[in-house]
Design the sequence.
């Protein structure tokens, strides 16, 4: 759906800017927790780079391998990633998503599983929409709206046809592709895994 077709709600509990894998997983988590969620995605379809990937869900085999690759990363988050990875694979299987056999040496240090990434993306969109939320494509965030104390209270978004809309929000989530400061993670899978585990607690 596009903003021209369906408009933008005047209010959302959660606005997710960027409808890639991490953004959709976070949106699904918030939806399952009872929030009214709006996802805006600038591309014609949700999924981001995951939608055109080979669908490898990978992680480091142990904490030491992760630290060697990302020495400046937060150690507590790194341990959480390594410890949660096996159960995340099983949770994906439990959703009925096709998961292949384990492959070694993925991304030079890791292990991985081929997953039906398009089915997983479709599942996350369905969770958001079933809860009454919206995933709006061909719509980009233009600016954040701040209150007099500097807190983010909304966003201005613009559709491909030039239509601009404002929405007020309770919470904002910027996906890794949207937020350059998130690039320090180096592992897009890490963001996905964290968001995925929020969905399926």
Sequence:
């Amino acid at each position: 759906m596009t903003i021209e077709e369906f408009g933008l709600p005047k209010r959302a509990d959660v606005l997710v800017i960027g409808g890639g894998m991490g953004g959709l997983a976070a949106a699904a988590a918030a939806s399952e927790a009872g929030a009214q969620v709006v996802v805006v995605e600038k591309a014609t379809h949700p999924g981001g780079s995951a939608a055109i990937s080979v669908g490898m869900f990978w992680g480091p085999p142990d904490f030491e391998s992760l630290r060697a690759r990302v020495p400046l990363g937060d150690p507590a988050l790194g341990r959480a990633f390594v410890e949660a990875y096996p159960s995340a694979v099983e949770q994906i299987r439990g959703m009925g998503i096709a998961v292949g056999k384990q492959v070694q040496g993925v991304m030079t240090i890791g292990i991985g599983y081929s997953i039906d990434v398009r089915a997983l993306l479709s599942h996350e969109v369905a969770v958001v929409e079933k809860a009454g939320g919206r995933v709006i494509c061909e719509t980009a965030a233009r600016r954040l709206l701040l209150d007099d104390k500097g807190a983010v209270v909304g966003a201005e978004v613009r559709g491909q046809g030039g239509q601009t809309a404002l929405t007020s929000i309770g919470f904002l989530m910027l996906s890794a592709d949207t937020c350059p400061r998130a690039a320090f993670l180096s592992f897009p899978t890490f963001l996905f895994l964290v968001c995925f585990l929020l969905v399926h607690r």
About this structure: Residues 179-191, 193-201 have pLDDT under 50 and may be disordered. The chain has one domain: 3-199. Residues 5 and 136 are 9 Å apart (CA to CA). The beta strands are 11-17, 37-40, 56-59, 99-106, 110-115, 134-136, 139-146, 152-159, 164-174.
